Amino acid sequence: MTTDEYLYDTEETNRIRELAMGMVREPPAPFFSHQALVLRVARLWGDHVEPRKLGRVAIAPLDVILDRERALILQPDVLFVSTERLSIIRDQVWGAPDLVAEILSHGTQDRDRSEKLEWYRQYGVRECWLVDPFKQVNLFDFTQPVPVERIAKGRDAIRSSVLPALEASAFGIFA
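Structure (tokenized):
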């Protein structure tokens, strides 16, 4: 399927649906615990971003067109686009968000940890959080020449390069 076919010839849906190099993927609906973590991360980011006018936070399902020609459209669980880059937001997000989070689940974690993480790096996402439910947050900082991975467990601080003043811990997300 092409990007245009996906965007203009398919019906709108509230289900998560992605286009990966021309192949449509529709995983089953996430569990309640997954969505609760999506909400916690979105609230954490939104409560930090909105009063400071740093940009916009959104949750899936929302199409992020990373590569129109290669038909690559992803739907990160949570995303942040900085104020300076708000022009990439139209009906969809046309380009890489500054920061994305994927809440890992049994059915999607292998793809999130490999293929999607690499696409986020390759297409210019500055930072990606992989939230392993009730265990840890793996933060991948792509702002450096060599990506840096930071792991936060328990009361460990989550140190974001994209939102450096954000005060958060893994415990705060999972509590």
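The helical segments are 3-8, 32-52, 109-122, 170-174. The chain has one domain: 3-174.
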